[in-house]
Amino acid sequence: MKYFEEFKRAMKLANFLALGVLFGTGVLPWLMEKDKTVANVLFLQSLLRIVSVYAGAVALIFIAEVIRTKAREKKGVTKYKKK
Question: What local confidence, expressed as pLDDT, does residue 27 receive?
């Protein structure tokens, strides 16, 4: 439970990234496609890209948040400012 706050922040940022990838990798063209067999293959490929980018983004953002928290602890700052 030590890194729960960092994980929550990483998930929030990665959700926005995943939405951008969702519309950027071909899901919208797939929705307008008429040939369903080719569209299904394209959809599965784009879904695989989304999942892999999402997992990578969560991992990278989580690592960055942990490093940021450790740096803040060294300085003596224990709480984040409320926005």
Answer: 62
The C-alpha atoms of residue 40 and residue 7 are separated, in whole angstroms, by 33
Neighbours of 76 (CB within 10 A): 6
pLDDT of residue 9: 75
1's tokens: 């439970």
10 alpha carbon, distance to own chain's centre: 7
Please return the burial class of 41, using the count of CB atoms within 10 Å of its CB with bins 0-12, 13-18 and 19+: exposed
**Average pLDDT, 10 consecutive residues per value, the chain (83 residues):** 72 71 62 62 74 77 81 74 59
Whether 81 is covered by a domain: the verdict is: no
62 within some domain: yes
